[in-house]
Amino acid sequence: MAMEGQEEPRISDVDQAETVTMPPATGEGPDPVDLFADEEAERAFGSGAAHKAPSSGHRGRTILALLLLAVLILVGCWFGVRAFFRDRVAPGVTLGGQVMMGRTRDQVRQIVDRQVRDSQVELKGEGTSARAGLKDLGVSVDSDATVTKIMNAKGSAGLSRLNPFHGEAVPLVAERDQLAMDRYLTERFIPRQDRSVPSTIVFDQGAHAFRPQEGRGGKAPELGRVQDAVSSLIDKPGRRLAVGVVYKDVTMPISLDTANQVASQANQRLAKDLVIKGADDDLMTVPAATVATWVKPVTDLDKGTMELGFDRQAIKQYLDQELARQLNRDMVTAVNVKNTKGDVVAETTKGVDGVRVTDVSATADLVVKALEEGDTNPVQASAEITPHKEQTRVARYDVPDGDIWIQVNLSDQTATAYHGTTQVKTFPICSGKPDNGKWSDTGTFFINVRYAVQTMRGQGYVTPNVKWVSYYNGSEGFHTASWNSAGIAKGDPAQYGSHGCINMYEQDAKWIFDNAPIGTMVKVEGQVPSGPAR
Length: 534
Description:
This is ErfK/YbiS/YcfS/YnhG family protein. The chain crosses the membrane at residues 62-81. Pathway: Cell wall biogenesis; peptidoglycan biosynthesis. Keywords: Cell shape, Cell wall biogenesis/degradation, Membrane, Peptidoglycan synthesis, Transferase, Transmembrane, Transmembrane helix. The structure is a single chain. The chain has 534 residues and is of the alpha+beta class. Among the domains are: 88-194, no CATH class; 272-390, Ubiquitin-like (UB roll), CATH 3.10.20; 404-525, L,D-transpeptidase catalytic domain-like, CATH 2.40.440.10. It is built from 15 helices and 31 strands. The chain has a 5-stranded mixed beta sheet with strand order 25-24-23-31-26, covered by helices on one side. The protein has a 4-stranded mixed beta sheet with strand order 27-28-29-30. Strands 2-1-6 form a 3-stranded mixed beta sheet, with no helix packed on it. Strand 1 (93-95) and strand 2 (98-99) form a beta hairpin. The longest helix has 29 residues, at 56-84. It is flat, with a radius of gyration of 46 Å.
């Protein structure tokens, strides 16, 4: 606002004002003052006020740190993405046009099953129509193999696998049965009396063999268009296609001679059981009746040919159920007994390697190959072997007053207890009868089962209330034999021998029971005398 008595200046007046040129400053005047370099100014404005402009070296280090941080972030993102997609579908993978990126195996399986169900062919014939799924048209989809193919799509290389601009459309993994397709179309669109029927083979349950079944000439469906539709759905499932069915008059599509040859080949495969080998001598036998269900001839109706084939999917399903059940084996740790010198005295538990079936699909391929080629040698299953471990127990059998063990001398019909090398007690016995497999086995054994009272059962006998039983070798052990006092007194197994056990007086069998715990070593030596030992 202009003061009273003065005229307020206008823009035009400013433009007409006189311009005054200031002379340049000379060095004669006072130097400019940097307030922020002054200690007093620092105290007045605070410590952050006084500073110097950053140098070019400081700026370079800052830029380098930022670049390094950006690189670390990118590397971290890269490894994070790789970790995320390790068990998921890679970017750019599709099934039937559906994006599969980032899906887990279970999610992929659900999508595969749904797209197989949704894959249909609308068939139209003369006054008849039908809607057929892939299975109706002789297509067997291997869902497990399809899921695996999707999960492994684009390989395992890092950058190319994760490149979203490189796509891969995965088809279904499937097998086709032309004969099944022909049968379906014939039954749906051609009257029974007009149908052509190819000769084929059937399994006779009573004879346990295949036999040829003669066909006949007549009307047959043209398969070409339907096969093209099926091929399209396998490549890109999940759609519904429409196809017109065309018929033709044909002679017998497959001759009886051809079917007879295939039946003969199939019966050759049934002549010997299929054997699958695991680890060591473990064998799994597949009955011929089961193999018969796998026979699936491969036909070409246009060429009039039939060849022996096998249903791989059925084979794999059977092996999925039976292979591990019959060939898997748990690892058993070997337990050795050593004396104080480190010498192995005995093996109380035999070591067994563990076996786990690993690749059923690979074994199924080998089975198919063996059946196709008529190879009767055992098929080697894919398996992982876990070597058994060893555990050692040191027993003081070779020193005075050491661990207890028992020596059974068949020659003089005695049992002697030792503590190491110190003899403790000797008992009269009567061992197993030396005939008909009833003799007492020789060797080194260990007491493993004990009963204060037991009813003993064996071939031709049942003896209740047997006291102080200490088994060391299967059904052989020490026990009271009150019914065999004469045999024990005389030491005469030829006349009074047992079924393999060591017969003893009650007080002696009880001493063994009280003083020889499970794990006590028993050495059976010598030869059974032909008459009384005493």
